[in-house]
Amino acid sequence: MGTTQQDTVPEPKYWHLKNVLTRALDTEFAVGEILPNERELAARFGVARATLRQALEQLELEGRLQRRRGVGTTVAPPRVGVAVDHAAHDWPGAAGDGWQSVDCESTVPPAAVAQLLGLAEDAGAEVFAVRRTRVTQGQSVAAETLYVPAASVPALTAMSSVDAPSGPARAHIVLGELQRLALEGEDRAVELGSARADDAKELDRLPGAPVLVVTTRYFVDGATAAVSMATYRADTCRLTFGDAGDVQISHPAEPVGQLS
Amino acid sequence: MGTTQQDTVPEPKYWHLKNVLTRALDTEFAVGEILPNERELAARFGVARATLRQALEQLELEGRLQRRRGVGTTVAPPRVGVAVDHAAHDWPGAAGDGWQSVDCESTVPPAAVAQLLGLAEDAGAEVFAVRRTRVTQGQSVAAETLYVPAASVPALTAMSSVDAPSGPARAHIVLGELQRLALEGEDRAVELGSARADDAKELDRLPGAPVLVVTTRYFVDGATAAVSMATYRADTCRLTFGDAGDVQISHPAEPVGQLS
DNA sequence: CAGTGGTCTAGACCACGAA
DNA sequence: TCGTGGTCTAGACCACTGC
Question: Of the residues A176, A227, B47, B161, which has the maximum number of CB atoms within 10 A of its CB?
């Protein structure tokens, strides 16, 4: 079968399958409900598991499904709107912005970051790297590394790894020092990426999971004083700029006229 | 090789493969160069083609590769920065913003859009749907549908499908009418999606290709006067907010000390 | 322990682009 | 026509979760 009728325009099976499942999700399943397992679904639709999985992958990418190894596949809630320009033109670390400082260490930044900071490439210039996590509505949605060149926080130049407090406390010091600077403005870029191993762990996802990478430049005195690279879970997040955080997106494409 | 030492924590083959290839791309390949075909690469690395493809898929998702059926796999240029807040607080259709009107028709908007516009769901309220394409540096990077309720452009209520000019011309009329309104502000949200068949065609991609969906609400007089849903190619685009458009991201993790 | 999703294989055929 | 990437199959084993 499959060649029973020569499709005039052979639509890929996984594509058709995705559409069928989408419709089913809209009409027959409730959020949180768990679907039959992959082997059974594949059998039910008469396809190989790999093909079924291709459809599920897309649906997960679109935020409609959530799959967890050892557990099963569940219907995902609508994406949460996450404000990215939190009280725009504010330094990170302001109270109650949903971010939690996790750690802080001195490292040589990746080349791309060094470039944004205007640091010479050859010099092994060290910067403070503040790791933070963002939690919204009970789930961690983002992991961030905030790169702060030592030159931006001169008061901390003497802070070596020995005399400084550990982890979160140290992060707080760096953030506190940033607040003293007059922030001129910010700059943002959003692109698709895949989670590095460390980010993935913090986001409770497998390495390689799709993420939205938000790169923010903080300007002080005409120069870039800090750079943030935040990775948001692409499956569960909708990044909002402006008000828009409160909007609730509804999926059901058509009101299926399900009377009574 | 590869099994020379039993990995204490068995790293997936495709993940390791991706890292190897990433390093190779940084050091041994030039932009635009074409890679060996999948069958040969798979053989060279001693894995099944499916596994090799899993690695290539991720690299394409990260914008490092470009694959075209019937042609081959090439090294992708760095992502282009695309300004999303074009002259913020301007109506779409302003001159030289990179958008090209393609078509315009009257349709019933998708439920999600109707909701954003504050239209009753049950009523089959029609709206103008302006289709546009965005071209940057010679390549089309985005496809947009701008939904304009008839109520927002009262002067056009009499415009039926018969007496109106066709396609692009009609789109221009709608956009022109929008310019007359006092735009109060905008609202944006960015999320990951997969290209619908029509968008995919316009973006020169296969259906289901990963896209960044930008939803914009235009406010007039305290209400939403129009909604735009734009899909940007996630593989080739970096969405920028603020200045940031000019920044060039460089990939090579390490300056390979290639003297002379 | 049993059941789930995640990884991997070795094939096959198809749709498309270019020569 | 040929070579490419895209789709699909029918298996297998592994890693994780929960009981």
Answer: A227
